[in-house]
Write a structure and sequence with these properties.
heterodimer; A: alpha/beta; six-stranded mixed β-sheet; B: MetI-like fold; about 85% helix; about 0% strand
Chain lengths: ~280, ~260
């Protein structure tokens, strides 16, 4: 299920990947996952709840090794935490004892080569972080503590933190799920313009099909547990997309199609549920 | 205006309670008129405090010194032990039962052992103060370290952070509020430890003073000793609370001003 234009090497490449938690009797979270994403592409992964989307995050960033198969990122097999990634989650996970600017600058204190240059070139790095905060509409909030910011603002800070070290791969795990609809749509636009400017490879894991269709070039639909890729959809709408694009007939068609696919896999997994459970006890 | 008045009442409340207790005490003396060696009146205790102020001050300084030295060792050892235990689940599982065991032994029962090892007077008093105070500190620091959000750990690990990075950037700052909260508890326990040891094996200190006073039925002096210990306990507690507020304002302010929508 390759989505890479012929000739170019895929940036993220999953080959028949399975992930099982614990020993042989543990939960099989993913099975037979096979897909690839080109450099600079924006991919979204959608699926019913419990389809192993978060397990997928751990695999792609090297935080968990696959039980079977191979994960390759940037041309090399992943066998430990990658250092070229940025991550953001549903929970902003800001450090309450640091102000906004110092929260954003946290990765620079860890990732090389910034780490060793930070003390000498603090002004340069601070300017960089401030500019990033300005891009997401948080100019003037750099000295505020996280608890002074609203949920949407905290999520913007979290986005800045995941991008401040210019990662090649951005992993987003339902980053806007806890926000209200208006804030969410606002942040879609913010993320889109950041991506269009910097062109990092991005993988967005989400429940929200409109979010996936708004942001992504390609959408992978996952099945219920154990998760595998059911289908691939290309979103060929022009960028930059706006909230108006979400009423475009083509957009609605894509969302409808994915929705019916997920409804189908949910139905199948519900029907299949009583049997394996009864058999295993 | 109303808010200010409320604040004022809140500030005055502890004093009102203390004076209320004193009045109740004096009233019960008038009503039941017990022998002064059973329950002396507040006035008698006060005059004992005045009359014996020189020996009381000398003994109080001795007790305070032992307490603070024991407490200081407790902070260092307890803090390091907390970091050690909290930084790994395996170490946590291995050491926690032992720690609970050590903590459940009555410290009065340990003093004779300490006397054999360290002699009498200052060394066992410091050791007992330490033994009582390190436990809450290490348990709290370990709890602070063990409750770091897994997502945050993922963020740091995906950046290539070492264990030490995670500890210094997230673990330690996060456990600071726990640490300072435990200091308040630990310092009062350190007083308990020092006084126990002085009562059992010392020729100095408030504990010794009270034991002497008891053997001569000088009950007002015993009460004076109790009040001095309580006073020192409150003083050091307040000092720790002040340090806590200064160092970890972000943790307490969060509850007061956690607002802001949109």
């Amino acid at each position: 299920m390759s989505d890479v234009k012929s000739g170019a090497e895929p940036f993220v490449d999953f080959q028949d990947v399975a992930l099982r938690y614990g020993d042989e009797n543990g939960t099989l979270a993913l099975s037979g996952v096979d897909f690839s994403i080109a450099k600079g592409q924006f991919a979204a992964i959608v699926g019913p709840s419990g389809c192993g989307k978060s397990s997928f995050m751990k695999l792609a960033t090297g935080l968990a090794p696959p039980t079977k198969g191979q994960v390759r990122v940037a041309g090399a097999t992943v066998n430990g935490p990658l250092k070229i990634t940025g991550m953001a989650f549903q929970n902003p996970t800001l450090l309450p004892w640091r102000d906004t600017l110092r929260n954003v600058m946290l990765p620079l204190e860890i990732v090389q080569p910034h780490r060793s240059q930070l003390s000498k070139q603090r002004a340069k790095y601070e300017a960089h972080a401030l500019k990033l905060l300005e891009t997401v509409g948080l100019a003037g909030f750099e000295r505020k503590q996280p608890w002074m910011l609203s949920g949407g603002m905290q999520q913007r800070v979290s986005l800045c933190r995941s991008l401040v070290h210019d990662p090649q791969l951005l992993m987003l795990d339902e980053p806007f799920a806890a926000l209200d609809a208006f804030t969410r749509e606002e942040l879609w636009a913010v993320l889109q313009s950041l991506w269009m400017e910097k062109r990092f490879t991005c993988i967005l894991v989400t429940h929200d099909l409109r979010e996936a269709a708004y942001l992504a070039d390609v959408i992978f639909v996952m099945s219920a547990r154990p998760g595998r890729i059911l289908s691939t959809h290309h979103v060929d709408l022009p960028r930059p997309r706006t909230v108006d694009s979400t009423f475009d007939p083509r957009f609605v068609e894509i969302v409808q199609q994915i929705r019916s696919e997920i409804a189908q896999t949910r139905k199948e997994s519900d029907a299949a549920k009583p049997l394996p459970q009864g058999a295993s006890t | 205006m109303k808010f200010k008045k409320r604040q004022l009442i809140e500030k005055a409340a502890p004093w009102v309670v203390v004076f209320g207790m004193l009045i109740l005490w004096q009233l019960s003396i008038w009503i039941f008129s017990p022998q002064p060696f059973i329950l002396p009146s507040p006035a008698l205790v006060y005059s004992a405090l005045l009359d014996y102020r020189e020996p009381i001050i000398a003994h109080a300084i001795f007790t305070l010194t032992n307490t603070l030295i024991g407490f200081a060792i407790g902070i260092v050892v307890g803090g390091l032990l907390g970091i050690f235990i909290g930084s790994s689940r395996l170490i946590y599982a291995g050491f926690y039962p032992l720690l609970i065991g050590i903590n459940s032994v009555p410290k009065a029962a340990v003093v004779p052992v300490l006397v054999i090892w360290l002699g009498i007077g200052q060394p066992p008093a410091i050791a007992t103060a330490f033994l009582l105070s390190f436990f809450p500190i290490s348990v709290n620091v370990a709890a602070g370290l063990a409750t770091v959000e897994p997502e945050l750990e993922d963020v740091l690990r995906s950046l290539g952070a070492s264990k030490l990075d995670t500890l210094t950037k997230v673990g330690l700052p996060r456990s600071l509020p726990y640490f300072f909260a435990s200091l308040k508890v630990a310092v009062t326990l350190a007083f308990v430890g020092a006084v126990i040891s002085e009562t059992l094996a010392s020729n100095d200190g408030i504990g010794y003073l009270m034991l002497q006073a008891a053997s001569q039925f000088r009950t007002p002096l015993m009460f004076a000793g109790l009040i001095v210990i309580a006073g020192m306990g409150i003083g050091t507690y307040l000092l720790c609370a002040l340090v806590e507020e200064r160092m970890t304002g972000w943790a307490t302010r969060k509850q007061i001003q956690a607002t802001g929508g949109g």
